[in-house]
Design brief:
alpha/beta; single chain; 18% strand; 9 strands; five-stranded mixed β-sheet; 9 helices; two-stranded antiparallel ribbon
Length: 238
């Protein structure tokens, strides 16, 4: 007996309620409850949840206005920074798929991953974009310390943006490439429902809550970083 794919998905959602949302929804919920609380802290600077929402909304709108397609793969190449988190969150809001790269990797690995993805856009700092400029024909979008660039939005444009595309739990959220020690790097694809269920289960397992402080120590291109970033943001922690 053949089972309709949409019917099978509905049955899975009923059996596993942790699959029914996205991390974008969770972060926005805390941003609405605690807009002035610190979402991120880097050295002596702090970014509130309200500021994170505003800056990521601006970048998401910029990506949408410049033709990002649903589930389009967007490469990010940053050192740890506010701009890194803003970019990841904005890509998800715009309906895209973020793919983090390590700027310390060699050109051969960077070129292979970029070619394998066939990506059309790369977000990063000027220094890191210059490193990959000769490796790809992708559009390079600089995200500066002063804020997402080039983002020159009118107040009207900001008010008309509701902050998120129509994202469903079975849409792709991110891709992380393996080290490639046993061959060529392979991209591991993770859907929103997988990320959402992981966050929901872990928040209960280790009792993550508002006011906690999380050290973002893992490199962004490792899967462990996904847990530390989103467990923090999705639970109102810093």
């Amino acid at each position: 007996m053949e089972v309709n794919p949409s019917q099978k998905m509905q049955e899975q959602l009923e059996l596993y309620p942790y699959w029914t949302g996205t991390v974008v929804q969770l972060i926005k919920e805390f941003a609405q409850k605690y807009p002035n609380s610190a979402a991120l802290k880097f050295n002596n600077s702090t970014l509130s949840f309200a500021q994170l929402e505003q800056k990521s909304d601006e970048l998401a709108l910029y990506l949408i206005e410049n033709g990002i397609e649903f589930e389009e793969k967007i490469v990010t190449i940053f050192q740890p920074s506010f701009e890194l988190i803003i970019s990841i969150y904005a890509i998800l809001k715009a309906g895209g798929v973020y793919v983090p790269l390590n700027p310390k990797d060699g050109n051969e690995r960077l070129r292979f991953i970029i070619d394998d993805l066939e990506c059309s856009k790369i977000l990063g700092t000027k220094k890191n974009l210059l490193k990959v400029a000769g490796l790809t024909n992708s559009t390079l979008i600089e995200i500066s310390e002063q804020g997402p660039k080039p983002l020159f939005l009118s107040e009207k444009a900001k008010k008309n943006f509701h902050g998120v595309q129509t994202i469903t739990p079975n849409n792709l959220a991110f891709i992380i490439y393996t080290s490639g020690t046993t061959g060529r790097p392979k991209g591991v694809m993770v859907e929103h429902r997988n990320l959402f269920s992981f966050i929901q289960i872990m928040r209960k397992t280790i009792d993550v809550s508002y006011g906690d402080r999380w050290l973002q120590n893992p490199n962004i291109h490792f899967d462990l970083a996904v847990g530390t970033i989103f467990l923090s943001l999705c639970n109102g922690a810093t």
